[in-house]
Write a structure and sequence with these properties.
Shape of chain A: globular
Number of helices of chain A: 12
Number of helices of chain B: 16
CATH architecture of the largest domain in chain A: 3-Layer(aba) Sandwich
Largest interface: A-B, 54 and 61 residues
Distance between the termini of chain B: 29 Å
Radius of gyration of chain B: 21 Å
Order of helices and strands of chain A: HHHEHEHEHEEHEHEEHEHEHEHEEEEE
Structural class of chain B: mainly alpha
Number of domains of chain A: 3
Helix content of chain A: 40-55%
Helix content of chain B: over 70%
Oligomer: heterodimer
Largest sheet of chain B: 2 strands, antiparallel
Largest sheet of chain A: 7 strands, mixed
CATH superfamily of the largest domain in chain A: Response regulator
CATH topology of the largest domain in chain A: Rossmann fold
Order of helices and strands of chain B: HHHHHHHHEHEEHHHHEHHH
Strand order of the largest sheet of chain B: 1-4
C-alpha cells in the first residue's frame, strides 16, 4: 500500500509542477496563480486539488474572448526556430492574442500531425504550421477546417488548397537576384570569374535561388563567368572550408564566391581569411546576422543576406489575427505592429525583401 | 479473497500501471475538463495511439529475447513506401480495391522478408541485435530514400485512407486493428508454446538450449513478429497521413523503448507483458495529449515522460529488493 501511495504522490507532484509551468504560457496577468501552483507542488503533493483549481482559474481568465493562435515550427530547439518563436511570442504580447508556440523535438511530420490534432481539441482559433512534409498535413488540416479553425502555413509552404494564407519569408526570385547584385557590387565590376558553393545538390530551396540567380546573371551581367559546376558542402561549415581551399588553388583567377545555405558562406569566409585573400576574392551568401558578424569584421565575408526569423514569427501571428478579425488579404495591407505586406496571388504573403548584413 | 490477492500480486506491474494511468487521466481531466474530457479528444487519442502501440509491441518482443530492434520504424516506413508505390501505380488507379489487395499482399511478403533478414543477421550470423538492426535500419532507409528521392508518396486510394480515418460503430478502425493485434500478441507472446520459449531464451539462453529449445528459431520468429508489427503500424500511419515517407514516425523509435520498459519489459530480456505495454502506451498517450492541450513546451513533455519512467523504474527496483529480502528471511526462518 505504501508503494502505491508513493507512486501516487510522486506522480501528482510531477504533474502539478508541469501544469504550473503550463500556466506560465498564458498571458502575464495569470502568472500569479500559476506561480502559486508551482510552490504548492513543492510544498505538498496532497494540495493537488487546490492547484487544479488555480490552474482552472488561469484557464478561465484566458477565455475572455482573446484569440488563441497555435504556431508550430518544424522542430523545437534549433536557433532559427527559437528566433521565430521569440518573434511569435512577442507578437502575442503586443497584439493581445494568446500565442502557443510549440512543436516536436524531432523534425517528424507524424509528431506534428498528432500535436495539431491535440490543438484542434484544445479549442485554438487559428493554426499556423511549418510542415516537415506537406502531404502528411492534408488530413489534419482538413480536420482543422471542419472544426472552423483558420489554417495557415509559414516558413515552408504546404502547397495545399486548404490554407487560408501562406506566409513566406522572401520571394525566391528576389533573393536569387539580390545575391548576384551583391557580388557585382563587392567586386566593383560587372565581369569576372566566380564560383558557387551550396549546401546540398538536392536542396530544393537552394536550387531555386541558384537557378533564379544564374538566369538573371546571364541577362544582366553577361561578363560573369561561372568557373565550375556548383560545389556541394553537405550543410557543413568544415566541408565548405576545405572545398573552398581546393577551389582557390584550382582557379587562381577566381574573383568571387557565392555561398548558399546558412553555413556555406561561413566556411568559405573561413578559408578566405586563412588564405589572406579578403581583398582579392569577393564573398557573398546567405547567412544569419549573428553568425556572420565575425567574418564580416575583417572582410573575409563581404555581404551576408537573409531574413530576420523573429519578424517572420511576428508576421505569422499578425496575419493569423487579421484573418480571425475577418479582414481579407490585400496587397499592401497594413499588418498591426509589422507594416505593409506584399501579396502574391490570393493568399501568399511575402514578408519583404531580404536584409543585407555588412560589417558594423 | 486469498486467490484474488494472488492474482493481484501476480499482476503487480500491471496493477501499478493502471493506477498511474487512472491518476494521470484524472489529474489532466481536472486541469482541463472542457478540452480533455471531450468525446472528440478521446476519439483523437484513440486514433493516435494504435500506430505507437503496435510499434511498441514489436519492440517488446525483441527486448524479451535480450536484444533490441533499432529498425522497427524504418522497416515500417520502408514497407509502407513500397506498398504505397503499388497502390498509386496506374493499375491501382483503375481498380483501387485490387490495388489495395496487392499492396497488402506485398506488405505481408515484405514483412516476412525483412523479419527474416534481421533474424538471420542476429540468430544465424550472430551479429548483436543492436548492430544488426542498426545496419538493416540504414539499409531500409537508404532504399526508401532512393525510391522516393526524399519526398513523400501521396495520392493513395480513398478506400485505403478509410483505414486510418474512419470508424465502425464509433470505434476508429486503427483502434480495432490495435485491439486485434493486442489479443493476438497476448496469446502468441504470453500463452503459446513459442511465448514460453521466448521467455526462457530471454532469461537464460544457454539453459534453454540445453533443454532442447532451438534458440535461433525462436529469435527468428520474434523478428518476423516484430517486422509484422512494423508493417502494420506503417500501414496505419500511411492511411492516417495519406502518404508514405522515409522519416515518418522517426520519433517513435526511442519512445517505443521507453514504453516497453515502462510496461514492465526487462531490458536484459526474459520478462515482459503485453498488458503492461498496452497500459504504458496509454499512459504516454494520455500524458502527451493532456500536456499538449495545456500548451506545455514539448521539451518539458519529454521531460515529464522521462520522470515518470525513472520514478517507476526506481520503485520497481526497490520493490524487487524488498521482495528478495523477504524471501531470504523466510528461507532462513524455515531452515
Amino acid at each position: 500500500m505504501k508503494k502505491i501511495l508513493s507512486i501516487l504522490l510522486t506522480l501528482v507532484m510531477v504533474l502539478t509542477m508541469v501544469a504550473a509551468c503550463g500556466g506560465g504560457d498564458t498571458p502575464a496577468e495569470e502568472e500569479a496563480p500559476a506561480e502559486e501552483a508551482g510552490e504548492a507542488a513543492e510544498d505538498a503533493a496532497d494540495d493537488a486539488e487546490e492547484v487544479a483549481d488555480d490552474a482552472e482559474e488561469a484557464e478561465a481568465g484566458a477565455e475572455d474572448g482573446t484569440f488563441k493562435i497555435g504556431i508550430m515550427p518544424k522542430l523545437m530547439g534549433i536557433p532559427y526556430f527559437e528566433s521565430t518563436g521569440e518573434g511569435a511570442i512577442q507578437a502575442g504580447e503586443e497584439l493581445g492574442v494568446e500565442v502557443i508556440y510549440n512543436g516536436p523535438t524531432k523534425a517528424d511530420a507524424a509528431e506534428q500531425v498528432k500535436m495539431l490534432e491535440d490543438w484542434i481539441n484544445s479549442g485554438v482559433d487559428a493554426i499556423a504550421v511549418a510542415p516537415n512534409d506537406s502531404a502528411a498535413m492534408e488530413p489534419v488540416l482538413q480536420k482543422a477546417k471542419d472544426a472552423g479553425i483558420i489554417v495557415l502555413d509559414w516558413d515552408t509552404p504546404t502547397e495545399s488548397d486548404l490554407v487560408d494564407a501562406s506566409v513566406r519569408q522572401i520571394d525566391n526570385q528576389t533573393l536569387g537576384e539580390r545575391l548576384f547584385d551583391n557580388l557585382v557590387k563587392v567586386m566593383g565590376k560587372e565581369e569576372g570569374n566566380y564560383a558557387i558553393v551550396t549546401g546540398g545538390l538536392s536542396a530544393a530551396n537552394l536550387n531555386t535561388w541558384i537557378d533564379f540567380g544564374t538566369e538573371y546573371a546571364a541577362e544582366a551581367y553577361p561578363g560573369l563567368n561561372l568557373v565550375t559546376e556548383k560545389i556541394p558542402s553537405d550543410e557543413i561549415q568544415q566541408e565548405a572550408y576545405t572545398k573552398t581551399l581546393d577551389l582557390v588553388k584550382a582557379y587562381p583567377e577566381l574573383e568571387g564566391i557565392i555561398g548558399y545555405s546558412t553555413v556555406a558562406p561561413l566556411g568559405v569566409a573561413q578559408a578566405i581569411r586563412e588564405l589572406g585573400k579578403q581583398d582579392e576574392i569577393a564573398v557573398v551568401g546567405t547567412a544569419t546576422e549573428e553568425d556572420s558578424q565575425d567574418f564580416l569584421s575583417d572582410g573575409s565575408l563581404d555581404i551576408a543576406t537573409l531574413w530576420d526569423p523573429a519578424r517572420l514569427g511576428y508576421l505569422t501571428v499578425g496575419v493569423a489575427k487579421a484573418l480571425l478579425e475577418g479582414q481579407t488579404l490585400e496587397d499592401g495591407m497594413e499588418i498591426e505592429g509589422f507594416g505593409p505586406i506584399e501579396l502574391q496571388g490570393d493568399n501568399i504573403i511575402i514578408m519583404g525583401p531580404p536584409d543585407d548584413y555588412v560589417a558594423e | 479473497m486469498g486467490k484474488f490477492n494472488d492474482t493481484l500480486s501476480k499482476y503487480r506491474t500491471e496493477k501499478n500501471l493502471i493506477i498511474i494511468f487512472i491518476i494521470s487521466f484524472a489529474i489532466l481531466g481536472m486541469l482541463r475538463p472542457s478540452q480533455f474530457l471531450t468525446l472528440s479528444n478521446i476519439s483523437s487519442m484513440a486514433y493516435q495511439m494504435p500506430e505507437f502501440g503496435i510499434f511498441t509491441l514489436g519492440m517488446m518482443a525483441i527486448i524479451m529475447t535480450g536484444g533490441i530492434n533499432l529498425s522497427i520504424v524504418t522497416t515500417g516506413t520502408f514497407i509502407a513506401i513500397i506498398s504505397a508505390l503499388i497502390m498509386t501505380s496506374e493499375f491501382a488507379v483503375n481498380s483501387p480495391i485490387l490495388g489495395i489487395i496487392v499492396g497488402l499482399i506485398v506488405m505481408i511478403v515484405m514483412a516476412i522478408v525483412t523479419g527474416c533478414l534481421n533474424g538471420a543477421f542476429v540468430a544465424y550470423i550472430g551479429v548483436p541485435a543492436l548492430l544488426g538492426t542498426l545496419g538493416t535500419s540504414s539499409l531500409f532507409q537508404g532504399i526508401g530514400l532512393n525510391v522516393t528521392k526524399g519526398g513523400a508518396i501521396s495520392g493513395l486510394p480513398s478506400q485505403f485512407m478509410a483505414i486510418g480515418n474512419n470508424d465502425i460503430l464509433g470505434i476508429p478502425i486503427p483502434m480495432i486493428i490495435y485491439i486485434v493485434v493486442i489479443i493476438f500478441s497476448h496469446y502468441f507472446l504470453m500463452r503459446s508454446v513459442f511465448g514460453v520459449h521466448l521467455h526462457m531464451v530471454g532469461s537464460n539462453p544457454r539453459a534453454s538450449e540445453f533443454s532442447g529449445i532451438d534458440i535461433k528459431k525462436v529469435i527468428m520468429k520474434a523478428f518476423i513478429y516484430s517486422a509484422f508489427m512494423s508493417a502494420l503500424a506503417g500501414m496505419v500511419m500511411t492511411a492516417r497521413y495519406n502518404s508514405a515517407k522515409v522519416d515518418y514516425g522517426s520519433s517513435y523509435m526511442m519512445q517505443a523503448v521507453t514504453a516497453a520498459v515502462l510496461g514492465g519489459t526487462d531490458i536484459s530480456g526474459g520478462t515482459g507483458s503485453v498488458a503492461g505495454v498496452v497500459i504504458a502506451v496509454a499512459i504516454i498517450q494520455v500524458v502527451t495529449t493532456g500536456l499538449n492541450i495545456i500548451g506545455l513546451d514539448r521539451n518539458l513533455v519529454d521531460i515529464s515522460i522521462g520522470l515518470i519512467l525513472i520514478v517507476v523504474l526506481t520503485l520497481r527496483h526497490f520493490s524487487e529488493v524488498s521482495k528478495n529480502k523477504k524471501l531470504i528471511e523466510k528461507r532462513r526462518a524455515s531452515s
